[in-house]
């Protein structure tokens, strides 16, 4: 839970002891928990505290006043922080209209690339970790990921195919056991918006199919994304296995690439963040 609202559990407990601020519920076996309304209130409290309000003052307010103050702060809050809070609240409540509204606002104000870099990818990473640790239900992660997926596809379809004299061909795929597709879809958006061609194979592509498809399509580059925490420290082993089945340069992105040391190999280009991806495409 602390990962979702962005503040440590011991800090929340100190607030409870000192100010009786959002006391947790307890199960029949005395396990602490917060319901959806409590989590929304904690998100609002964190927003106020990060913007100059002392906890001692917030503790004297009722929840309606706290909510109203956060609403008044919308023009002063860091935009990315505000949108992150909005996405978290909507995910906790399974509130699709609100989630879509927040995401749409981000894209209108910042564009898809900046939205993915500053809001969506950090949000997805946080939700994935919370799922793995059991802090939220898998349904929360699925809810958010599928709405993000739908919106990226809409943005892909909006892009006309610009004419480019030096168009490159990219084979896009996720290897076996990798099912997190949004990063790969975003790569397809970047490539299309810059006039490159791509063949999209999607998630869990069998290794045995890679060489067959590459021989037929003849890409200039292969591109994959490694995100699943289940892959963990096997990331270099998986990259090696992918390269054993391909004879073209491989671009590999995703949160695991930024978190683990990637072994240097010929034909391999690790892309640790969105800036690395856009820079690579600019220099093609």
From TrEMBL:
Q: Which residues form the HTH merR-type domain?
A: 1-64
Question: Which key words are in the record?
Answer: DNA-binding, Repressor, Transcription, Transcription regulation
The UniProt record lists the keyword Transcription:
yes
Q: In its keyword annotation, does this UniProt entry include Disulfide bond?
A: no
Check the record and name the SMART domains matching this protein. HTH_MERR
Stored InterPro entries: Cbl-bd_cap (IPR003759), Cobalamin-bd_sf (IPR036724), DNA-bd_dom_put_sf (IPR009061), MerR-type_HTH_dom (IPR000551), MerR_fam (IPR047057), Meth_synthase_dom (IPR036594)
PROSITE patterns (UniProt xref):
HTH_MERR_2 (PS50937)
PANTHER family, alphabetized: MERR-FAMILY TRANSCRIPTIONAL REGULATOR (PTHR30204:SF69), REDOX-CYCLING DRUG-SENSING TRANSCRIPTIONAL ACTIVATOR SOXR (PTHR30204)
* UniProt name for this protein: MerR family transcriptional regulator
Native source organism of the sequence:
Pedobacter gandavensis
